[in-house]
Amino acid sequence: MPSTVASSGVVPSPHGPAVESALAALNEFLAALNSHDVRRWAETLHYPHIRIHEGAVTVWGDAETYVREAEPELAQLLATGWVRSVWESVTVVQAAPAQVHAQVRFLRLDQHGRRLGVFDSIYVLTHRDGRWGVLARIGFDAGVTAVEAPGGD
């Protein structure tokens, strides 16, 4: 039975402490991205780190390479008006003691809370070297058009 995490935080899981710890790492991944601190974001990952998106496969061998290549990507994202992302849904679809697969939908938001984009992804979280981290991300633009935030201007 899948476990779902609301954007407000982690809920208890029937999959036990491994899933709860993996989801805490997933929430830290998003918090680090939202901090706009690429080094902090890189620390939430395991390496080699894999991202499959837009028909491409990117592999980063270490944190230093990730930071160097993610800094311009973050600058481009900020230039779109993005300020933060939120989980719309997180569902654990597979779990084992040292690996968890989460199906997520996240929103990119501007400073007024308006949606800039909606993305569906699978995140692979692993427990290695004494900590949980994101090993791989597979995702795509969900094709949902931007909408006004409730009460937005």
Kindly summarize this structure in a few lines.
The protein is an alpha+beta fold. It contains 3 helices and 7 strands; from the N terminus they run E-H-H-E-E-H-E-E-E-E.
Please explain how this structure is put together:
- This protein has 153 residues and is an alpha+beta fold.
- 26% of the residues lie in helices and 45% in strands.
- It is built from 3 helices and 7 strands, in the order βααββαββββ.
- It has helices at residues 17-34, 38-42, 63-79; strands spanning 3-5, 45-53, 56-60, 82-96, 99-110, 115-128, 131-141.
- The chain has a 7-stranded mixed sheet.
- It is globular.
- Mean pLDDT is 88; it is low at 148-153.
Features:
153 residues, alpha+beta, 7-stranded mixed beta sheet, 7 strands, 26% helix, disordered C terminus
Biggest sheet statistics: 7 strands, mixed
Q: How confident overall, as mean pLDDT?
A: 88
Query: First CA to last CA: what distance?
Result: 40 Å
H/E element order:
EHHEEHEEEE
Work out the radius of gyration: 15 Å
| DSSP summary, beta strand count | 7
General form? globular
What structural category characterises the helix and strand content?
alpha+beta
Low-pLDDT residue intervals, each spanning 5 or more residues? 148-153
Number of helices: 3
**Share of helical residues:** 25-40%
Task: Tell me the strand order in the biggest sheet.
Answer: 1-4-5-6-7-2-3
Strand content: over 45%
